[in-house]
Amino acid sequence: MTPADAPGTGSTETARSTEPSQHGTTVSELDSPESIAAEVSAGIEAFLELKAAEFLAISPDADDIGRALLEFTRGGKMIRPVLLWWGFQLASGDDSSRSALNGGVAEAAGSLELLHAAALIHDDVIDHSDTRRGKPALHRQFESRHSERRFQGGAEPFGVAAAIVIGDICLALSEELFEKSQSVLGITPSARDLRATLRRDVMVGQYLDVLAEVVPLDDARIGERAWEVLSFKSAKYSVEQPLLLGAALGGADEEQLAEISRFGLPLGQAFQLRDDVLGIFGDPAATGKPAGDDIREGKRTVLIAESMKNLSSEQTQIMAERLGDPDLSDSEVAECVSMLTDSGGLDAVESFIRSKHDDALSVVREWSTDSSPVSSTRTRIGPTAQRQLTKFAEALSYRKS
């Protein structure tokens, strides 16, 4: 799913009219995801080109770092940058004051995309993934480079070590770019706190994910753990927190942040629940990942937890033996997939997605200037912005990749 495919809201023009409201600022139209993605991508590219030149100045051998990061950060969905940008607009609204700040917003949004890239690089190492976005994962690229250049020692350990270090560098660059944005946007204590919370939560969520993969399937907290991982590793960091960070940068107070959280968290949960479905049932041509990949990786997702409730003792034993086995045959994976369907696990997750998606849209309707009865929310949006948010939520909840 490209940035255009995901949110697809129509117009790519940047004219946004806003009008004051007794409750806040009414935003009639949000910047298009396509225009946001283009601006943020260009900013990331320019920033990484500068960093690549710095790496090269240190050593010709360090040129690999900059080239790898430039290539890795191209082609992402740009979900988090779009949401940060929209959060800023929902809070600030006023075009005349906002236009001069867009460079800073683009840098803040770009910093989130670099944080995401760092997390993906490390996630692929942890999961022993071979591919990312249909291409070799970064550690596999450096593993191949080791062989091609006839280096000494093991190719695989070199690839893993290189990816860990480059992921760390990417994380540091994310912080640098966020600090750069503050020179334009100004130092906002609440934004700094939200940025720190986002970074903390995704890292804690990653640990919880690693832990969940080694806990027995009959553990009493398997479902609770699955929801913790879903919320902290992805739902908050992918949707809710980018919106909140952007809103804080736009001057939102605690009341408005709470309103935006009511939209962002359930939508983030729907987004990750869909990701869990795609990790097993997705089309490899669309996802860039092998079919049933989450089974081979041993992911203890909400889908797995819901399915386990209704498996027979024999099926539970089979699932316990196969979940996390990277050498499963396609037929063994297919049998596990059938269990997830027949047990009602897939239906349960689809029901969760619909519920979370509906919860998010109910908040969007509250924000609408056409709401009846008239809402007292601080966040106010016109019909066009309402359609944009609705379409974006639909894309996140029911996407194919």
Automatic annotation (TrEMBL):
Keyword field contains Cell inner membrane: no
The UniProt entry, under InterPro entries, shows: Isoprenoid_synthase_dom_sf, Polyprenyl_synt, Polyprenyl_synt_CS
Q: Provide a Gene Ontology MF annotation, just one.
A: (2E,6E)-farnesyl diphosphate synthase activity
- Requisite cofactors: Mg(2+)
EC number, UniProt record: 2.5.1.1, 2.5.1.10, 2.5.1.29
Q: Which example biological process does GO assign this protein?
A: isoprenoid biosynthetic process
One Pfam match, given by its short name, reads polyprenyl_synt
Q: Give the PROSITE patterns listed for this entry.
A: POLYPRENYL_SYNTHASE_1, POLYPRENYL_SYNTHASE_2
Provide this UniProt record's keywords sorted from A to Z.
Answer: Magnesium, Metal-binding, Transferase
* Record field: compositional bias (Polar residues): 9-29
* Coiled-coil blocks: none
Domain of life (superkingdom):
Bacteria
Location of region: Disordered = 1-32
Return the PANTHER family for the record: GERANYLGERANYL PYROPHOSPHATE SYNTHASE, SHORT CHAIN ISOPRENYL DIPHOSPHATE SYNTHASE
What does the similarity note say?
Belongs to the FPP/GGPP synthase family.
> Under what name is this protein listed?
Geranylgeranyl diphosphate synthase, type I
Write down the species: Brevibacterium aurantiacum
